[in-house]
Structure formats: structure tokens, C-alpha cells
Specification:
The complex is a heterodimer.
Chain A: E1 4-8, H1 10-14, H2 18-31, E2 34-36, H3 48-52, H4 54-70, E3 75-78, H5 81-96, H6 98-110, E4 121-124, H7 125-130, H8 132-141, E5 150-153, H9 176-183, E6 187-188, H10 207-223, E7 228-231, H11 234-242, H12 244-251, E8 259-261, H13 262-269, H14 274-277, H15 288-293
Parallel strand pairs in A: 1-2, 1-3, 3-4, 5-6, 5-7, 7-8
Chain B: E1 20-29, E2 39-48, H1 53-63, E3 83-86, E4 89-92, H2 99-103, E5 108-111, E6 118-120, E7 123-124, H3 127-135, H4 156-160, H5 173-176, H6 179-183, H7 189-200, H8 208-215, H9 229-233, H10 240-256, H11 267-282, H12 287-302, H13 304-312, H14 328-341, H15 352-358
Parallel strand pairs in B: 1-5
Antiparallel strand pairs in B: 1-2, 3-4, 3-5, 6-7
Classes of the chains: A alpha/beta, B alpha+beta.
Chain lengths: 303, 361
């Protein structure tokens, strides 16, 4: 784990998922890591732009990486699976192909944008806190045991696959979220769809197909007796949380599954106040039972 | 030296000292349409330490149960016959060494590929797969022009553009875990779409616009949910998801020129267009513009109750005061520069007569 990170919240945590941003800042303070803001960054060009205008995506990503480099930090910290894959993919291309880096930098220079020398790594919050000294540091700040809370991990796609661009853990048998859930004192719930897709990228263009995908994890986590689900991706969060009732209509059965951002779960275990974790910004509300198990209103344990 | 009494392995005999190991496999059995019961049988076989999953299945069939059904042919990851699931993920059985599983003390589970009907045991019906591959017209279309007298001139970099897609051996591993196909069985899917790009990206093909129009409809490229299972599973490095993205990029290139918008009618393409416009205007995605511009004003009207639900949770940013990144003028300049650089039409292969003209002969 680094002491300082170039912090890249991405579109969703800056807009509709602001609770993810506030929770990330709070857990970072507990972990005593510095997040350096980059006010001029844009969307990373993920997904749709990457698909429709690949060269524009590459340049948008290069501009972000260049700004991260200028903060002096060695690692850009992302809290979104989609940003993670897309920024890593662009970074790999720029770092491994000098001719391509030169072409992109030449274009950036032509329009007075600072260039990129290839010196930044892109890493997700999940990776930083689930292994090595970051994990030890989290364990030392997880002062509130969430005992009795049954948590279904939902990884999302673009933090696992393709492994050749991500490669943090076995994409078919990941265990980083389980490790963190256990470190929070909670109980991880296993179910096959935890590595599958939430359908979000096509939820507007192909809602029926997307909901068909979304039903599966909600159904399996519910049947396995989970109290909540946790995800490292704000897109998965939005899909599982906001589209949950539409998925219930399709499945013909009710779902009442609160969805936590990873930073919210870690924050609850580290004693971050409920006002900062902002669960009221979720469409699927927490039940009183879950609030109790998350120990949201307990005074912080003194250690 | 250990003795080999397993007949199919006799080719290895004498080549070198063969070390043997015991492998246990849990294999899904299913008798076909007459048999409603899928069940698992566990077999233990003795095979050389170099054995693949396919070698183990051969040993099971030879020594334990001759009725076990699976496909195989080349045994060297070229023919694409032996696709099946190992512990839930599609692999070519002939490409997976079993030694690491034995060393880890893990008993693997072997099952047929997903997203295709099971005929018997590990054999799936590939008809739906072939039907989709045929649907993308997997051959060169040069029908508008008479064939050249001698060969086309294709530059190495032009061939390079479709080299990955040309590696496909049509084993079906990418289709097995396709999440969109699970939800929409009619989705063309990663194998057929990678094949489609192999021809859309071929500089000799003359049917690019019609191909793209077909691929932009229902069950086409915008059905892909970017789960990346196909890239993860492909045993040949085709990266079908990347091929689907290239079809999206070709749609934008071919779809926007000459003011013709016919290729851009799909909701998926419109969704992508809003993304691009958002970054141009303010740097970030404009979520409030996504819905009406993707599904149209009438569709958006139907979604008002849903939008109110989101608004109550604070999830709808104020459309009148969109979030704007600092220094976004940089991004506008960048976009304009890149647009000037983008070729409006796909390059074409040179016909021999073009080459002659170009040389001024």
C-alpha cells in the first residue's frame, strides 16, 4: 500500500453515487493514506467511448494518466471496475508501445495538454486493502466487528476479466472480498453468480437482456441467506440497487437486498459515521435489522 | 520404469521413462432426451504425469465406461472439437495438463459447455452455434465487382488488423459462459461476431455497410454486456469481446459519414453517442441525458416513475447544472484534432490494376 495516491473517483462516484466518494475518503483517512484530487480529469472513456471511438478513449485515458503522474504519486487509485480495466488497458498500451506513446503525446502537445511518460500504475481500492500491508492496516482499523452480518460478495466483471490485463487474483475463484468480509467480523456467503455480470452496460439499450442477467445474483444471494451484498464497482451497485425492483418483477418474486459499496462495508467496520457512509442515498433501503448488524449507530469502540 | 497397460498411450512407450499419476474426475453424465436425470460419476485413472484432461477421459472410456460420450479429434488445440467445462469454465480438454490439479489434491468437475443443448454426457449440439456463424455471412463478398485477374494486394498491416479474429477454431468455449446469451439465447454471441469482424475488417470485402447494418439490429453487437468471459475463455487468443468493440468503432466510422445516419438507429449506438457528447460538453457522463437520448422521449416518459424513485435517493444529478470538469476546453480541442485525423472510410485492398496506376506504369 502507498502513502499517497492520485485519486480518480470516475463519473459515477462524482455524480449519482456520491456516497461512494464520501465513504472512500473516510476509509482512506482511517487507513492514513492521502488521496490527491485531480480536478481536471474527465470520464476515462470507458465502455461506450472505448467501443465507438477507440482513439479518443486512448487519448482521454492518457490525459488522466498524465495528470496522475504530475501529482507525484506512483499509483492512480480507482474505485470502479470499469475505470480500472479501461485505464489499465490504455496504460498497458502506452507503456508497452513506445511508438504509440509518442504518437499520443504528440497529439496531446498539439492541443497544449501535458504529456505522459508512462510512469503510473492503476490499481483498485479492493486490491490495495485486501492483500499485503494494506490488509494488515485495514485489520488494525476494523474496530467494530460486524458479527452476525451475512454478506454476499459480488465482484463484477471488469475487476476479474480479462485476467491478462487485471491479474490480481484467479478470475474464477476470487477471494479478496471474502477475506475483507471476514476481516470485518462478518460472514461471507458463497454463491455461483458472484463472478457474473450485473447487466449494467446494456440496461438502457437492452433492458430485458440486462435484467435477465441481474436476476441471477440477486436470486442466488437471497436464497443463500445473505443480509446484504457488497460490490467494488459503482456500476454493479447501481444495477443491483436501483434496478432491483424491475428484476423482482421479471423474476416474479420480491427482492429486498441492500447493496453496499466496498468502501461502505469497510467504513462501517472501521467506525465511520453513518452520515458519511450515506446509506440513505440507496434506492433499496437498509432494514433496521441490517442497520443493527452494521452497528451504524454504536459509539465507536475505543482501542 | 512403470509399465503402461493402457493401449491408447502406447505411442508414448519407449519415448522416455513415463511417470504415472492417479487422477480423479467427477464427470457429468446425461443420457440424452430420453434421460431426464443429470448425475455425476467419479472415476479414478492412472495416466502419465504429462496427461491432459482429454487423455484422462480417454482412459476413463477405455478402462471404466465405454459409454462415456465426448468429442475429440486433433489432440493439439487446432480442430476445436473437445470444448467442455472444467470446474465451470470452458476449456479445450486437450490443452489442459492435469498434473497441477493432482498436486493440489483437487478433484475436477467435468461438464458439457453452457449455452448449447446437451446431446449426451459431454457432447453438445453445435447447431445453434453454426446457425449464428452462418448468419454473419462468413465469406468474402466482392460480388459488385468482377474478380481481379491476379491476386489482391493486401499490405501486411491490413492483414494484421484481422489476424486475431482469423485464429478462431470455432470450438465454442467463448459462447459457453457468455452472460448475454444466457439472458438472450438469440444473441449472435462472441464467436459469430468475431467471425463477422474478420470480414468487416477485411480490406477485400465490399459489403461493409450492409454487414454493419445487420449486426446493429436486435441480438447484434449492442447486446454484448462486456462481461469479458469470452476473452477469458478463448483458448486461441481471439479476444472476441475486442472484436465486438471493433464492430462498434466501424459502425461509428461508416455510420456517420456523408450525413447518413442509417447505421446509428440502434439504442446501443445512440447510448454510445451520448457518452461521447457528454465528455465533449463537460468531461463527465451526463446521466440525465442518457435515458431520453437512448430510448427516445416516449420511452423516457414511461420511465418517469422509475426516475422519481432514483431522484428520491439523490441519484439524479441536476440537469440544469451539470457537473463539469476543470479545463474541459482541452478535451474539446483534443476531440477536434482526433476527428480531423480519423479516416472517414475503411481502406480497401488494391486491385492489381490500381497498383499499376499507382506506380504510374
Amino acid at each position: 500500500m502507498q502513502e499517497r495516491y492520485a485519486y480518480y473517483p470516475g463519473c459515477l462516484a462524482s455524480l449519482s453515487q456520491k456516497e461512494l466518494d464520501s465513504s472512500t475518503r473516510a476509509i482512506s483517512a482511517k487507513l492514513e493514506i492521502e488521496l490527491i484530487d485531480m480536478p481536471s480529469v474527465t470520464c476515462c472513456g470507458a465502455g461506450d467511448i472505448h467501443e465507438a471511438k477507440p482513439d479518443y478513449y486512448l487519448h482521454l485515458s492518457a490525459r488522466i494518466l498524465a495528470q496522475a503522474e504530475r501529482t507525484g504519486a506512483e499509483v492512480l487509485l480507482t474505485i470502479c471496475n470499469v475505470c480500472c480495466l479501461n485505464l489499465r488497458q490504455a496504460n498497458k498500451k502506452l507503456q508497452s508501445d513506445p511508438a504509440e506513446l509518442a504518437r499520443v503525446n504528440d497529439n496531446l502537445m498539439q492541443v497544449d495538454i501535458p504529456t505522459y511518460s508512462g510512469g503510473v500504475e492503476v490499481r483498485h481500492l479492493l486490491w490495495e486493502v485486501s492483500a499485503g500491508d494494506g490488509f494488515e492496516r485495514f485489520r488494525s482499523v476494523a474496530v467494530r466487528s460486524l458479527e452476525g452480518l451475512r454478506v454476499a460478495p459480488f465482484y463484477g466483471c471488469q475487476i476479474l476479466r480479462p485476467a491478462k490485463l487485471l491479474g490480481f487474483e484467479d478470475p474464477d475463484r476470487p477471494e479478496s472480498l471474502e477475506r475483507l468480509i471476514t476481516a470485518c467480523g462478518a460472514e461471507p456467503i458463497d454463491y455461483p453468480a458472484k463472478v457474473k455480470c450485473c447487466g449494467f452496460p446494456i440496461v438502457l439499450a437492452r433492458e430485458d437482456v440486462a435484467l435477465g442477467e441481474l436476476v441471477q445474483p440477486l436470486q442466488e444471494a437471497t436464497d443463500a441467506g445473505a443480509d446484504v451484498m457488497v460490490t467494488p464497482c459503482p456500476l454493479c451497485h447501481l444495477s443491483l440497487d436501483a434496478w432491483q425492483q424491475k428484476a423482482a418483477n421479471l423474476a416474479g418474486r420480491p427482492f429486498q437486498m441492500p447493496i453496499l459499496h466496498l468502501a461502505q462495508l469497510l467504513g462501517a467496520a472501521a467506525g465511520v459515521e453513518a452520515d458519511t457512509l450515506r446509506f440513505r442515498r440507496h434506492v433499496t433501503r437498509l432494514s433496521e435489522d441490517v442497520k443493527d448488524k452494521l452497528r451504524l449507530y454504536d459509539p465507536v469502540a475505543r482501542v | 520404469m512403470a509399465t503402461i497397460d493402457n493401449e491408447h498411450l502406447t505411442t508414448l512407450k519407449g519415448a522416455y521413462d513415463v511417470q504415472l499419476m492417479e487422477v480423479s474426475l467427477r464427470v457429468q453424465r446425461f443420457g440424452g432426451e430420453e434421460d431426464s436425470r443429470r448425475r455425476y460419476e467419479t472415476y479414478t485413472v492412472e495416466v502419465p504425469t504429462t496427461a491432459t484432461l482429454l487423455d484422462c477421459l480417454d482412459a476413463v472410456k477405455d478402462k471404466h465406461d465405454g459409454s462415456l460420450a465426448y468429442r475429440k479429434s486433433c489432440r493439439m488445440a487446432v480442430c476445436g472439437s473437445c470444448g467442455m467445462r472444467l470446474d465451470g469454465g470452458a476449456v479445450l480438454a486437450c490443452k489442459v495438463p492435469m498434473r497441477p490439479y493432482v498436486d493440489a489434491g483437487h478433484v475436477v468437475t467435468v461438464a458439457p459447455m453452457g449455452n448449447l443443448p446437451v446431446v449426451k454426457d459431454l457432447v453438445v449440439d453445435m447447431q445453434p452455434f453454426w446457425h449464428k456463424v452462418r448468419a454473419v455471412k462468413p465469406w468474402l463478398d466482392t460480388s459488385d465487382e468482377a474478380p481481379p485477374q491476379t491476386e489482391w494486394r493486401v499490405a501486411p498491416e491490413q492483414q494484421e488488423a484481422i489476424s486475431k479474429e482469423s485464429l478462431c477454431i470455432m470450438c465454442g468455449c467463448c459462447v459457453s459462459e457468455c452472460n448475454s446469451m444466457e439472458a438472450d439465447p438469440d444473441f449472435l454471441g462472441p464467436a459469430a461476431l468475431a467471425k463477422a469482424y474478420r470480414f468487416v475488417g477485411d480490406v477485400r470485402d465490399l459489403d461493409t455497410r450492409d454487414r454493419l447494418r445487420d449486426l446493429n439490429g436486435a441480438h447484434g453487437i449492442w447486446d454484448c454486456t462486456r462481461c469479458y468471459f469470452c476473452n477469458q475463455r478463448c483458448p486461441k487468443g481471439v479476444d472476441p469481446r475486442d472484436a465486438i468493440a471493433k464492430l462498434g468503432a466501424e459502425t461509428f466510422r461508416e455510420g456517420l459519414h456523408d450525413g447518413i445516419q442509417t447505421l446509428m438507429t440502434d439504442e446501443g449506438a445512440r447510448h454510445a453517442k451520448v457518452f461521447i457528447e457528454s465528455t465533449y460538453k463537460g468531461g463527465y457522463l451526463r446521466e440525465t441525458e442518457l435515458v431520453p437520448k437512448t430510448i427516445g422521449p416516449l420511452g423516457a416518459l414511461k420511465e418517469i416513475p422509475f426516475a422519481l424513485q432514483l431522484a428520491r435517493a439523490g441519484k439524479v444529478p441536476n440537469p440544469l447544472m451539470p457537473h463539469k470538469a476543470k479545463d474541459n476546453a482541452e478535451v474539446k480541442r483534443l476531440w477536434k484534432l482526433l476527428e480531423q485525423q480519423t479516416p472517414r472510410h475503411q481502406e480497401r485492398a488494391l486491385r492489381p490494376e490500381d497498383v499499376t496506376t499507382a506506380k504510374g506504369v
